[in-house]
Give the backbone structure.
Amino acid sequence: MGTSQISSVPYVLSLRFPLSFGMMTFIMNMVFIALQVVLLRRDFHPVQLLQILVNVLFSAMIDVGMSLLSFLTPTTLWQRLLCVAAGCCIMGFGIVIEVSPNVLMVPGEGIVRALSIVTHAKYGTTKIVFDITLIAIAVVLSFAFFGTLRGVGLGTVISSLCVGSVINGVNRVFAFPERIRSLALVTDRNR
C-alpha cells in the first residue's frame, strides 16, 4: 500500500542510499526547519528551534516503531484499507492536537503551518497540497533510482487526500481544537 505521504521521500531515499529510514527522515526534517526560517523570517519564533530536538526523537522512533510493528502485516485488501483508514484518522486527530496550541510541532507539520501562514490558506488544505507534492517527488525519485515505483502505493495517495480532510473536519465539527487554541501563548488566524 506504500508509506505515508510525509515518509515517502525519505523512504525512497533510504532504499537508494546507505542511511536508515529514520536518518533520512531526520535530514529531510532539518531541511523543513530551514525552510520555515526562510518562509516566516521575523515571524519564526526561536522556540521553534526546539523542533531539532523533536526531530531527533521523532526520527529515532521511526526506526524503533518499524521494529515494533513488524508483526503487523495485513494480507487482504480490506485489511490493508482498514489499516490505512485507521491510520488516516489517528494521524488527522493527532495533527490537530499537535498543531492547535501553536507551540511546538514536528518539522513536517511546522513547514505546513509556515506555508499555511504565508499563503493564507487553511491548514488542512495546505497539508493536502504539501502531501501530494511529497508524493510526486517520491515517485520521480523512485523512477529515477530504480526504474519502477517503490515506497508509494494506493495507501500513500489515500492518506494524502484524507488526512488533510480529517484535519479540516475535526476543526469544523469538534470544539476541543478551539479550546486547545485558546490556551495557546501565540495565535494565528490561518487554521
Observations:
- The chain has a mean pLDDT of 86.
